[in-house]
Amino acid sequence: MDNTAVLMQMRQLIQLLAKHNHAYYVMDQPEIEDSEYDQLFHQLKDLEQQHPDLIQSDTPTLKVGGEAQSKFESITHTVPMLSLGNVFNQEDLFAFARRVEERLPQQKVQYDVELKFDGLAISLWYEQGQLTRAVTRGDGETGELITHNVKTIRNLPKFLSSNDADIPALLEVRGEVLMPKAGFEKLNLEQAAKGEKTFANPRNAAAGSLRQLDPNIAAARPLAFYAYGIAQCQPHHGLSTISASLDWLNQLGFAIGEQHFVCQSIEEVQQRYEEIQQLRPSLKVEIDGMVIKVDELKQQQQLGFLSREPRWATAYKFPAVAALTQVEQIDWQVGRTGALTPVARLNPVAVGGVTVSNVTLHNIGEIHRLDVRIGDTVSVYRSGDVIPKVDKVWVELRKADQDYVQIHLPEQCPVCSSPVVMPEGEALARCAGGLYCAAQRIEAIRHFVSRKALDIEGLGDRWVESLLHLNLLNDVADIYHLHEHREKLLGIEKMGEKSVQNLLDAIENSKKTSLAALIYALGIRGVGETTARMLANSFQNLEALQAADLEALKKTPDVGDITAEWILDFFRAPHNLEVLDRLLAAGLHWDAPTAPTRQPLNGESWVITGTLSQLSRDEATQYLQALGARVSGSVSSKTKCLVAGENAGSKLEKAEKLGITVMTETEFLSLMAEYGQGL
Ligand code: IVH
């Protein structure tokens, strides 16, 4: 990259970071995850490291944290409130321990392990045991005086008292203000009920509450304070470890973390970290990691600070739930039902503890909504064990000198080259080569042999898998050529002479079928058993159905606009026609379907309910369908007639309310008899 491009990228990142800083610190309405902010920040830091001569004076990398707000009095911290370095994995943690232990030769080092509270750091002054001031961290040097609000925090002592300990003349306690999870949820419910703004997370709720001018508002918010350190104590408390100081603070009336440990080795620290990660959901407060501190205060002093971070402590963050990465490619996958799903191939990135390199983009609509292009920087989000997803495309990070290829729906199936179709109103595009496409093969075969289709009972999943494996079933027409491969069939494990013969017989028997069963067996989208019967009855033969145009298809009872398009697309895909020809050549045959003139109930919607005594519900359904009626599961104003058997319930009530004709079983049977159906 030349200097101009670097400079442009730096400016872009600075602007973005400033925008998100404002949303976070001033508006208390963050728009992105903290981990995403950190990654943008690191991108900028990396650029600055590579091009130190181009560092901008307003870069946020030179500031410690939030902006001090003007609403409150500014206070300069006597002891600056610094930040912590981060580690994200065991390797980094062990490297931290190595650095510590190298500086403390021949000394035993113990580590204090604490929860890393996800709230706001504050400093509290107690003079002669009385809380006299509370100051936010601000930029680490200067913060805001918010004593009026902090005094309303219920679990925070306003006066120190202890049976065992002397009360120091001056004590400066550091800790975190936060909103416990239960209180946060309650507050958000109340805010929503009042029509007021809800908070993105407990930390922002805490921040928003502390930044109120009116202490009554803060008082009404369920805030809590947890202490984690002492900045000053006069006279000195005489304690020698941070863990002992925490217990002392606790004795003085301060809440400390639900858990803290002293570990004898860094391996034990790692174990505790893993334990706490498991416990995290059950803790009362939100944490974003652990803080690891050298326990011995004298050793802390020996280690000192490096720039603005202590060498004696580090934050061990939990894995990010969102991360930034680049889209390298977008491929289309064809599912077993022919649906085309776009999959983004990513530059591998760790999200929530696992490496993510592929992520589904669901459908072409999602691609347009996100405007995701090849080369884009994207946020990948994963919470709990939920499948990762692309959350956001960082259009702002597109570089002027790079091409970002837009994604279009392919015209041909990437597996079988059949046309790709997507009727209006549908979200998913599909391959039209249902009978031919290798991706859809298993599903197509299963459906073809199922009971209501060609009904080849012997051809179960185990057979299908073995046959696919032997390359004997490339499409459904191959079923009728299996007899040519008897030897290979006999070679399949556990398939003896008898089972092979049974299979071949079942296949032979299936050749005599009905036009409706064959149409159903083709697996055309939207064409179920009833629609297939309607199509068979309306068109009478396969040639007429194949030649039908959209209008003719739409006129068929039970065929909606979208299904009509699917049917048309199916017969337009040349590969499907080839398979169909081969099926017919293999000898599939059927009797002519019932003539359309014998369909007096054409297009009517009927419902059957209750228990029938003289025939089964399936039989009743078949009679009705043979006469052209649709049999539906629920009563609506479109229902023509309800057949009510014994113990008919709510459907009968509804039909009566809507004034729909109701028939008893006997009445139904005599009507069927009039039309020549039934007993
Ligand atoms: S000790 C020299 N202990 O983490 C700094 N900090 O980046 C010593 N935090 O904003 C800080 N839980 O407010 C410490 N148990 C804990 C903590 C903790 C949360 C926050 C702290 C600061 C940030 C450090």
Automatic annotation (TrEMBL):
Q: Which residues bind NAD(+)?
A: 34-38, 83-84, 114, 137, 176, 293, 317
Molecular-function GO terms, alphabetical? DNA binding; DNA ligase (NAD+) activity; metal ion binding
Q: Which residues form a coiled coil?
A: none
**Is-annotated flag, keyword RNA-binding?**
no
Record EC number: 6.5.1.2
Cross-referenced Pfam families: BRCT (PF00533), DNA_ligase_aden (PF01653), DNA_ligase_ZBD (PF03119), HHH_2 (PF12826), OB_DNA_ligase (PF03120)
The reactions it catalyses are: NAD(+) + (deoxyribonucleotide)n-3'-hydroxyl + 5'-phospho-(deoxyribonucleotide)m = (deoxyribonucleotide)n+m + AMP + beta-nicotinamide D-nucleotide
Q: Which UniProt keywords apply?
A: DNA damage, DNA repair, DNA replication, Ligase, Magnesium, Manganese, Metal-binding, NAD, Zinc
Q: Where is the BRCT domain?
A: 596-665
GO biological process: one example: DNA replication
What cofactor does its activity depend on?
A: Mg(2+); Mn(2+)
Q: Could you tell me which PROSITE patterns the record lists for this protein? A: BRCT, DNA_LIGASE_N1, DNA_LIGASE_N2
- Per UniProt, the enzyme's principal EC class comes to ligase
Q: Name one GO cellular component term.
A: cytosol
The catalytic residues are 116
UniProt: Zn(2+) binding residues? 413, 416, 437
Protein family (similarity comment) = Belongs to the NAD-dependent DNA ligase family. LigA subfamily.
For this protein, the record's HAMAP family field holds:
DNA_ligase_A
Q: What does this protein do?
A: DNA ligase that catalyzes the formation of phosphodiester linkages between 5'-phosphoryl and 3'-hydroxyl groups in double-stranded DNA using NAD as a coenzyme and as the energy source for the reaction. It is essential for DNA replication and repair of damaged DNA.
- The name this protein carries in UniProt is DNA ligase
What is the native source organism of this protein?
A: Acinetobacter calcoaceticus
